[in-house]
């Protein structure tokens, strides 16, 4: 079965750090360009960032609100992409999804999401 | 950065046609993707490359893109189409994906 499964969310105090994981299965992860998208409670979708495949250069891009605080990395041996979140703020509270263009252009494969709550 | 503008809500009677606009500067030169999201669920890709449907998406969903507006059209609307809909483009200037603010479709 083709799927993405996120984990690592939870309650964290402002200024703290958290690492999210997303494990892929059922497809060739090595070739996938992986993205993180978040959704604050009651709000719309916000792209967080992406990491290209190693053959695509392996580089990362980030949205302005998280650049310098968040880092995306990947471990192809574990079929896993990570989102390291530092200096967390209350406005980072959201459901975090990993997603990729599995069979067509556009994000056609999504995980179920993991909830991050930043609160004192 | 590139901005996509969607109306917050659209209401439509069952069996009628819903049209959801997504405005952006010269968006007609971009490829637009559309997503449907129901409460408590992850988004689902409805339309890619302006008008193509992934496998399993009903033909009632269609898309177009020209000038400064892309449009998602839902024909013969059903109660199950109640959801939030988002447009998306790749902004090559900033190397960022951009989502519209989303449109809530209510079936009357």
| Low-pLDDT residue spans of chain B | none
**Please, what is the average pLDDT of chain B?**
97
Largest interface: pair, residues per side: A-B, 22 and 25 residues
Task: Let me know the average pLDDT of chain A.
Answer: 97
The tally of beta strands of chain A, per DSSP, is 11
Distance between the termini of chain B: 36 Å
H/E element string of chain B? EEEEEEEEE
Could you give a quick summary of the protein structure above?
The complex is a heterodimer of chains A (120) and B (108). Chain A is mainly beta.
Layout: helices, strands, pairs:
The complex is a heterodimer of chains A (120) and B (108).
Chain A: E1 3-7, E2 10-12, E3 18-25, E4 34-39, E5 45-51, E6 60-62, E7 70-75, E8 80-85, E9 94-100, E10 109-110, E11 114-118
Parallel strand pairs in A: 2-11
Antiparallel strand pairs in A: 1-3, 3-8, 4-5, 4-9, 5-6, 7-8, 9-10, 9-11
Chain B: E1 9-12, E2 18-23, E3 33-37, E4 44-47, E5 61-66, E6 69-74, E7 83-91, E8 96-99, E9 103-107
Parallel strand pairs in B: 1-9
Antiparallel strand pairs in B: 2-6, 3-4, 3-7, 5-6, 7-8, 7-9
Describe this structure as you would to a colleague.
The complex is a heterodimer of chains A (120) and B (108). Chain A is an all-beta fold and 120 residues long. Chain A is built from no helices and eleven strands. In chain A, the strands form two sheets. In chain A, strands 2, 4, 5, 6, 9, 10 and 11 form a seven-stranded mixed sheet that branches. Chain A has a four-stranded antiparallel sheet with strand order 1-3-8-7, with no helix packed on it. Chain A is globular. The termini of chain A are far apart. Chain B is mainly beta and 108 residues long. Chain B is built from no helices and nine strands. Chain B has strands at 9-12, 18-23, 33-37, 44-47, 61-66, 69-74, 83-91, 96-99, 103-107. Chain B is globular and about 40 Å long. The N and C termini of chain B lie far apart (36 Å). The mean pLDDT of chain B is 97.
